[in-house]
Write a structure and sequence with these properties.
Fumarylacetoacetate hydrolase, domain 2, alpha+beta
């Protein structure tokens, strides 16, 4: 199923896609649906068959980020072999590494990425993001990881490279306002049995800049997530992004930086497109 958060008449709603329409679900927000577990998913399945539920035209609805304010957002760095190969200062890691993005920087489809100025060297990164539906406690290990995944979405890990690399300020460089577009929906885990087969593409003003499948991952998904749960618990509604492939603006010759008027179009097979302008 494809689950959306959207707005109609200034009211936020949650819906499931059916033939180009959004069927409204009886949940106040996506976190409430996720916390409902199997009951939430069954309610969505029931709505797909209902003739009485309220429906809205997907093309006319204002689609928001599927989780407008996630709990935690953790992003994997250097998790694609191709991204390591394009980076002259990087080396293969023996274990995963992560940084955080702040939930209040999340924006939805078609909302503008705010341009911080030329000196900040604004860059793009397409990433597959995992949305959790079950709690993974500290010390859980690899075994329960895949069963704890609620679904998948697209995350744009926008970066300000000047700030990121000035005195190793990665957290600030990754957390300028609006630097975490997500969407357009969450595709439930049952529809993506093997996320390593998904293809990620990013187009900048129509030109393909990144294009790779997740078979290029350095660490398989259970290994990646288990590394996090050595030190912290993941809860329903938390998001973990899985890194980006080669093609970022930083390592191009000449370098390519985002600027006002640019259009970023991110696509992941089986999920859809996330489009945001730069303003």
């Amino acid at each position: 199923m494809r689950l959306y958060t959207f707005e109609v008449n200034k009211q936020q709603k949650v819906g499931v896609e059916r033939d180009g329409s959004l069927v409204e679900l009886p949940f106040a927000n996506m976190i409430e649906l996720i916390n409902a577990g199997s009951k939430g998913l069954n309610a969505a399945k029931k709505a797909l068959k209902s003739k009485d539920a309220a429906t809205y035209n997907l093309k006319k609805a204002k689609v928001l980020a599927p989780i407008p304010r996630p709990g935690k957002i953790l992003c994997s760095g250097l998790n694609y072999n191709s991204h390591i190969e394009e980076n002259p200062g990087a080396k293969m890691l023996s274990d995963p590494r992560f940084f955080s993005k702040f939930p209040d920087n999340v924006i939805g489809p078609n909302q503008p990425l705010r341009y911080p100025g030329e000196k900040h060297q604004m860059d793009y990164e397409v990433e597959l993001a995992v949305v959790f539906g079950k709690t993974l406690k500290v010390g859980s290990g690899e075994a329960p990881v895949m069963d704890a995944i609620f679904g998948y979405t697209i995350l744009h890990d926008a970066s300000a490279r000047w700030m990121q690399f000035k005195d190793a300020n990665e957290v600030l460089g990754k957390n300028f306002e609006s630097f975490c577009p997500m969407g357009p929906c969450i595709v439930t885990a049952d529809e993506i049995p093997d996320p390593s087969k998904l293809r990620l593409t990013l187009k900048l003003n129509g030109q393909v800049m990144q294009d790779r499948t997740n078979e290029d991952w350095c660490f398989p998904l259970p290994r990646l997530i288990a590394w996090i749960t050595q030190c912290l618990t993941l809860y329903p509604g938390d998001v973990v992004s899985t890194g980006t492939p080669a093609g970022v603006g930083l390592f191009r010759k000449p370098q390519v930086w985002l600027k006002p008027g640019d259009i970023c179009e991110l696509e992941i097979s089986g999920i859809g497109k996330l489009v945001n302008p730069v303003k």
